[in-house]
Amino acid sequence: MGFDWVRLFNFRNLGDGKIDIAAPQVFLIGENGQGKSNFLESLYYLSYGGSFRTRHDQEVCRHGEDQMALDGFFTSREDRFRMEVRYEESRKTLHRDGKTIQDRKDMVSLIPTVVFRHGDMDFVSGSPEKQRWFVDQTLSMNYPLYIDDLRRYRKILKNRNQLLKSHDYEMISVYDYHLAEAGLSLQRRREDVLRSFNHVFSQEFRYIAGLSEDLTIEYQASWKGCKTIEDVLEILAKNHARERVLRTTTSGPHRDKFFFRYGDRDFLSLASTGQVRLVSLILRVAQARFFLKETGRLPLLLLDDVLLELDGLRRDRFISRLPPAEQRLFTFLPGNIFRDYRTEETMVYTISDGRFQRE
Ligand SMILES: Nc1ncnc2c1ncn2[C@@H]1O[C@H](COP(=O)(O)OP(=O)(O)OP(=O)(O)O)[C@@H](O)[C@H]1O
């Protein structure tokens, strides 16, 4: 089912008002800069309480304004509820059916949303930090308790770094133990999830890219080979002298890396920009399929202008491999492509200067 409607107030350049989107597939057509991505962003806000483009809520308020509000009604196979996001006086609040949500973590499994967009290339060719973000997001979507593990690790890491910064080494061995314990648990989860995620990912890659060899994500854990807390403590002890100089923790899951292996080679060294882009889309297909497989629930799919960059064959294959979803929203530039994918169940809007016109 998905979102029946969304109401917008002061959200970026979008006009205030209620937009009916009660259809399994919604197409948003418009020239560049008219507000198509902004609308997808508003749905993401309602799903996760934040943006996929910025960490600053003030940024999404219409220029010159300092407050905004969104609400939407969502129906899934399991549930129906109203979500609200309000931002005023520099404070954001989230509500479900009128009740305040205290922790954004509690939103993670309410409206499982997967976004496809250009910036996703970073998951393949960007910094290790971006790659970790993708892996952590996949884990958090499927196993929300992972968020607690991640928060715990980050807290210990922050405290340990503070000790190093203030040259206060008395307690460091206590923090080493906690860091090892919390970090190993993250490492095991990342190992486990990549093992099963790779099955889905390599299968989708073979089909959509049509290339002969397998592409897999290889996990290069910072504490590679460590199985026990003692193994990790040994590494930490070895690094103590260096860390006292650098005043930061130099090993652990916050330094993990990922490597795309094509057959027995490094994918990035031989891939074209187009292939990197394609793989970033395939990662999202795999993420959505993996979610369905693990949880039995349907995701919401937001596809921001990603079809145009694919050739006809890959585009058809890509579309055919999108998993069943509660709802799919696509943005397109004006032109003919969208007509090829339009079905009887597709609701089409043209967006111009933030205003919606139903076709
Ligand atoms: N906070 C804001 N207040 C008002 N307008 C904004 C705000 N943030 C962005 N905009 C405007 O929104 C427009 C961009 O919209 P959006 O990113 O949705 O484009 P789009 O229709 O998806 O096209 P493109 O394909 O170029 O991304 C720009 O005109 C920009 O000036």
Percent of residues in beta strands?
A: 15-25%
Strand adjacency order, main sheet: 2-1-4-5-6-7
- The parts where pLDDT drops under 50 for at least 5 residues are none
CATH class of the largest domain: Alpha Beta
Query: What sequence of helices (H) and strands (E) makes up the elements?
Result: EEEHHEEEEEHHHHEHEEHHEHEHEE
The CATH homologous superfamily of the largest domain is called P-loop containing nucleotide triphosphate hydrolases
Question: What's the CATH topology label of the largest domain?
Answer: Rossmann fold
Q: What portion of residues is helical?
A: 40-55%
Distance between the termini: 21 Å
Number of separate strands: 15
Q: Largest sheet, if any?
A: 6 strands, antiparallel
Q: Kindly name the structural category.
A: alpha/beta
The CATH architecture term of the largest domain is 3-Layer(aba) Sandwich
Number of helices: 11
Shape: globular
Supply the number of structural domains. Answer: 2
- List all distinct small molecules, including ions and cofactors, that are bound in this structure: adenosine-5'-triphosphate
Radius of gyration: 22 Å
Family: Belongs to the RecF family.
Organism: Alkalispirochaeta americana
Main location: cytoplasm
GO molecular function: ATP binding; single-stranded DNA binding
